[in-house]
Amino acid sequence: MKLSDPVTSVSRMTPIQQNALKNLGITTVRDLLFHFPTRYGDAARMTTIDSLLKGDTAVVYGKIEKLKTGKAFIKKIPMAEGTVNDDTGTVRCIWFNQPYIAKMIAEGALVRVEGKVSERNGNRSFLNPKIEAVASLPSAIGMSLFGEGSDDHHLYPVYPESRGISSNWFFHAIQKMLRLNLHESIQDPIPTEILKKYNLPSLATAIVWIHAPKKEDNALAARKRFSFEEIFFIQLEKQIAKREYEANHSYKIEKSYSDLKFLTDKFPFTLTAGQINAINGILDDFKKPRAMMRLLEGDVGSGKTAVAAAAAWATVSSRPPKQTFGALQVAYMAPTEILATQHFESFIKYFVGSGIQIALITSSGCRKFPSKVNPRSWTTISRAQLLKWVANGEIPVLVGTHSLIAESVKFKHLAFAVIDEQHRFGIRQRQKLIRKHPKVPHLLSMTATPIPRTLALTLYGDLDLTVLDEMPLGRKRPITEIVLPKDREATYEKIRLELKRGRQAYVICPRIDEPDPAKEGVLLARSVKAEGKMLQEKVFPEFKVGILHGKMKPAEKDAVMKEFNKGSIDVLCATSVVEVGVNVENATIIVIEGAERFGLSQLHQLRGRVIRGTHQPYCYIFSETASAKSVARLKSLVTARNGFELAEFDLQNRGAGELTGRIQWGVSDIAMEALKNLKMVEAARTEATRLALTDDWKEYPLLRARIEDTDKNKPIHFE
Ligand code: ADP
Ligand code: MG
Known about the structure:
six-stranded parallel β-sheet; Rossmann fold; binds magnesium ion; Helicase_C-like; P-loop_NTPase
């Protein structure tokens, strides 16, 4: 067997198993070796009964009582049931068609129960869980590998599963491969001197240690190595990119703040000191011959758009080199159509009267301002026409969604590119945006996602950072309340009062549709469609409730947003799509359903939607459970001073499996561990920077191969 052989050569497998492996991205023998356990023993999946969350797969230990057999109420299926209790609470267990279970286990026995948690009328239960009697309760309930005191003798690896393939299958397959010593032929991509310097195990050792640790230290060291590796390669790639980008010459834009008066006079507000500072930073970069790469980070509502607009104005009021006519061009990319359209409209307001043409490109069509017939408004134009005018430089400002980076979009003199909500895009999209037209543009990347420092150092290692840490004057801090199920009605009454005063509300739900109740293990979370209907019929019949979600057609979404903007919809029930930069000043209330399902930073972002105006904003976080742990987590939304604190909190308290880094940030769970460790991230950065700056990385064939390989496999986007 060779590492490059198909994974099917490891052992005989069913088509279902083959498919499951494919779903996990495992196609070769080598991939299998790199399928790492997420934890060891079952220590981490163990929880206390009070923190069971419906839909989760969990393991609890406790004493079983009230065992009995009977017939299920509806279909007369034979069943067994009992209750399990630990120090924190009681949970019911029900087995259909397995009445013998009640006879196998003794009343009052200590048991281990494993299964999916379901909920009915507020009561949690396990349906058909696995159950076994145990001699004693484990000492380290709820403690993960990285927590304190887990027992070494429980150290068997637990692998990420997929339907049709179990952790156990992986265990046996991988142990077999280890016995064949296949891992010893894999070459270590990390230079030996770096491993020595930081005391990290070699690749071959780490593979053994991660799959078959003799003691906890082995597993820890192996995980540390792999997380260092991932962080190191991300950094190396960023540092190389930074060096390459900086070698590019860009258009010089020689403007100072006072040259922007035409625009700043148009703003219906005075810029904050932070905004002016950010603008000046960009203007300084513009004067340099090398291309700018800057990240503008600022809480939702801190006014990043005005900064970008000012920089855009500096650009379009500059002539292309050696020309006495025309303008340098700006590309402004936003992640959603709603947002792109909103920016297009803001630019019209800001630039009107200047003679600058502005266009919008999305998958549902193109617009241009001004229209020939009415110089104060826009008109729709064909894509072909738009592309022509952008290519010959007649349209200086092009706002758009992903459509903006299509190969067919060519600029005559692209000098400045903006990415709004950059965390919603992938590297590859950014690279497409900043390709040469015919020089590379200066890049301004903007984000409201406050991210932990270690993550910023890693993911944005190639960018210079500007932080807008000041909110515009007159903004009120939102009043945030964590609402337990029993207080739901009272909260609706408070909201009713605000709606009567003419304010508007968002209600954010985790899902679009009601899940199919017949499907096992579905996420039983509130859905936009059902909740919207319920709110309209039962809670706010005197107001108009609208719904908005990602499966609606762009035109439908647009219509709903317009109505909400106008105020003819009072309550907008939506998925978190409104997370992104929607700007309705009169909407001062946000209700977030199923808050357990969101990260704190994400909740903070959502809350930011209602701090746009001058009225007192309210944020009601509806918790599905009253579990102490979950409420404490949510409470930090009330106490934290800013988004950065919440991001750190999220990182430190992230449970394995929940809100994984791959989804949110494009890094693996194992790298998330490294991100908790500033020292490790700094070490990786030091080494990466050194190798990139000296070009030494080119001397290591394996580093080179890896960098070239990641270039090919970069994620498209993280949404
Ligand atoms: P974000 O940083 O989240 O993108 P926006 O740029 O959308 O924020 O700005 C949010 C709102 O604040 C907009 O309505 C904008 O007009 C307003 N705004 C921006 N700067 C200021 C300021 N200096 N004073 C008052 N309001 C401002
Ligand atoms: Mg914004």
